[in-house]
Specification:
The protein is α/β, with parallel strands linked by helices. It is 34% helix and 23% strand. Bound molecules: alpha-D-ribofuranose (RIB).
């Protein structure tokens, strides 16, 4: 790394387009079998949605000169209001979020087992109605954006409109290809509009069409994804095994930060949110990845989703970057 000091010299905003859910998180010894009633240990709620989580991660990490802007859709209901309040309290600008009276807010029911593994069942509600309104809002915000962050929980045609405009405006796009989609569900040219793709192991296996068991197979998969999908930079996040990055200027395996994992849910969102924010602030890719990995590690050591996102000082301390 040439300069590992944290950069904060760019007053632009980080722009999020995607899903906001209310997460109902169930801690349980195991999942119930078909026809069985199984008693679980605990239920709690947390704001969620991949874009919602990434927005809170970016906002908690953001330097005060940066704005984090969320574009999405919630229902006119108690969950929608709670999410709007919580996310704005975390510093997310929610002016771009529509309240839709005709549909409910998205919800995800998430089971966490004693190993911290998670099983997410989502009902997208209002997120599924994101379309022209949201794409136009995102496009209007691009002139002042440092990075656009998108995922795969809202209609991909909406995200693609914003990604195309981002390319035209020279705004880098970070695409978290989650949840994984079959090739028929993905519009032509979708992945080519991403500058950085951040699949987890499972998503990378689906995109590359090959298993990933170790660092060499991660490298092979990253190469295949770059060749097949036309993205400049692929970062495969491998949970407790670190990340593999493949780009023109940066290539290799980066080992993880060691933490005790309580719940692995939303770690990829902590990673993507802080990666985007760190790039907006002017950090180089290597620095931004280190900060993002620290955020992912801190996230798995806390319960919740939006509520588990770490703060700037915690991330800087773990990453050892000042
Ligand atoms: O990545 C975790 C998120 O996926 C959860 O917050 C849930 O809402 C689903 O969107």
């Amino acid at each position: 790394m040439t300069d590992n000091s944290i950069q904060t010299n760019n007053p632009k905003s980080t722009l999020l387009l995607g899903a906001i859910n209310m997460d109902l998180i169930v801690e349980t010894e195991r999942l119930a079998r078909a026809g069985e009633t199984f008693v679980c240990d605990r239920l709690y709620t947390s704001g969620g949605g991949k874009a919602g989580n990434q927005a809170v991660a970016a906002a908690r990490f953001a330097d005060s000169i940066n704005d984090v802007k969320m574009i999405g859709r919630v229902g006119d209901d108690a969950f929608g209001r709670e999410l709007q309040t919580f996310m704005s309290d975390q510093g997310v600008n929610m002016n771009g979020v529509t309240t839709d009276p005709d549909i409910e807010t998205g919800v995800a029911i998430i089971f966490i087992d004693p190993t911290g593994e998670n099983f997410v069942h989502a009902i997208y509600g209002g997120n599924g109605r994101c379309g022209e309104v949201e794409a136009t809002r995102a496009i209007d915000e691009l002139t002042n954006a440092g990075v656009l962050l998108v995922q795969q929980e809202i209609p991909l045609s909406c995200s693609l409109d914003a990604m195309r405009a981002a390319k035209r405006n020279g705004v880098p796009v970070v695409l978290d290809p989650a949840p994984a989609k079959s090739p028929e569900e993905v519009p032509d040219g979708f992945y080519q509009h991403a500058d950085i793709l951040t699949p987890n192991t499972w998503e990378a296996e689906a995109l590359a069409g090959m298993p990933i068991d170790d660092v060499p197979s991660a490298e092979q998969a990253a190469n295949r994804i770059r060749d097949r999908l036309g993205c400049q930079c692929v970062i495969i996040t491998m949970a407790g095994d670190g990340v593999f990055v493949a780009s023109e200027d940066l290539r290799g395996h980066i080992p993880p930060f060691e933490v005790d994992a309580i719940a692995t849910v939303a770690a990829g969102d902590a990673f993507a949110g802080v990666l985007g924010q760190a790039l907006t602030e002017g950090n180089d890719l290597e620095n931004a990845i280190r900060l993002a990995m620290a955020a992912g590690a801190l996230c798995v050591s806390k319960p919740g989703t939006q509520s588990a996102m770490p703060y700037r000082n915690e991330v800087l301390e773990m990453a050892g970057i000042q």
